[in-house]
Amino acid sequence: IDDLPALFGECVRVLKTGGMLTFSTFGPDTLKELRAAWAAADGQPHVSRFLDMHDIGDAMINAGLRDPVLDVDRFTLTYSEPRKLLEELQGLGATNADATRARGLAGKSRYRAMLEAYETMRVDGRIPATWEVVTAHAWGPPPGQSRRIPGGGEMASFSINSLRGSRRR
DSSP assignment, residue 140? Predict the structure, then answer.
């Protein structure tokens, strides 16, 4: 996700007053071994970038979400060989969403170089793959709570009915 302010701004817009937002996403250590293996092979980004939980939390607060709580869990799955991980990722439909990625095929020699680099990470006869999972929840802002807007400043909203004496009856 490249535009966290827009994402959480939309969440704030659609949440009922006091509504709860809960989600999970991957953190930057997700597939760090695969990322390192590709970096050793050709230096091009082949694995999607994932945001740090601190950046996510800051964006939630800036959008006006209340009391955000974020947590990180790391899991390491192991595979008999790197190709098994790649097959699993393909089966999940995972792709590289990095906007700066190369658009062509990597080629057999670079693919083999990545596999060789990944093999050097073998632990106890297995290939590791780290998954960093960020879980979060927060509450929608109450009516009238100001929120920061892009470019600086704050915006507040309130019900027209809360303006006493401003309308004729």
Answer: P
